[in-house]
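Continuing the batch. This is chain 6 of the set; chains 1 through 5 are on the previous pages. Same settings as before, nothing changed between runs. Recording input and output for traceability.
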Amino acid sequence: MQSLLQAKGVTKRYNPAQKPALNGISFEVHAGEFIGIMGASGSGKTTLLNVLSTIDVPTDGQITITGVDIGDLDDTRSSDFRNEHLGFIFQEYFLLDSLTVMENIAVPLALKGLPPKEIDSSIQALAERFGISQQLGKYPNELSGGQRQRVAAARAIVKKPAILFADEPTGALDSSSATELLSTLSEANEELGTTIMMVTHDAYAASFAKRILLFKDGRIFNELERKAQDRRGFYETILEQIALLDESR
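Output for chain 6:
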């Protein structure tokens, strides 16, 4: 499989007198993977997402995405790289209240200067996949939380990012809305080949991933692969590993 992201010896220190938030992390992400990142609060998972996505800068180590060493990028080129190659879903939706759903999803494509017909066809296809076709003319304040998050996901995926970073995307959703979002992300991964890295504290959400990195004290404590397991079986495996993680504290 094609290596899309490589992290080698990545360390992040916020204070020299304290333990590093990330301590020599190394791993690869291949195109088409759906990876979950789990760990207790303070284990380094969100810090990892921030340094991988060029939002933060590691103290040591190397990160390469699509063959680009992101440590070589200045602030302007980092911003351009994020806009061109990376997609983001956060717990908060970050939709523009003054724009309709369709206009919100169109923003990344409009910034690329794509023709209106191409923008419309891309949005219609994703809106159908995300179950928001009937909401395209509405404004964010007219939507449920689950619908807003699906709009945010569609906006992130519409530009076909090399990697989609999701930081606790189900954190503000009820169980039904969370399942709808996770199922749609899983479909995007399977059918569109979208590569996803998702930070989550929730074993149920993580069970939709194909591989999980379990973090503890800034290091990768364990790695789980779903392989031939169904999602329910993988969920049980995740719970067992979380219990081991808790016991090792």
